[in-house]
Amino acid sequence: MVIILAPCVYLPIAKGFSWSNWQKAEHLHFAFDYENFMPRGILSTFIINMHKDIVAGQLWKHGVILKHNQAEALISEDNEKKLIHIYIKGQHKRDFLAIIAKALQEIHHELNDLPHEGKLAVAV
Length: 124
Prior knowledge:
Elements: E1 28-33, H1 42-49, E2 54-60, E3 63-68, E4 71-78, E5 83-90, H2 93-110, E6 117-122
Antiparallel strand pairs: 1-5, 1-6, 2-3, 3-4, 4-5
Helix pairs in contact: 1-2
């Protein structure tokens, strides 16, 4: 059996989702800033590549929640500001950030080393 994952173009925001659960000082916040140009499809490609870690029912057009060991991550894109935000809570946040960043770096590489800058917003 073959399973095909299509980008989540028309999914509404996940039921029960609350930004306030993610924007806390104790959570790690990292962002990729695509200052001049952020092509469409980066997050969709990331979601397809990381599908095994998606928390059931927690993905939508501009975001996804992933779980790895005892850490959870919210990854969301802001097309207007040309940012991909990564919020991580739980244990081993830095290890999970490394996994997420590597997956995004692979996408950047496929896009001819797309220029971007990584920014750690909250040090933990």
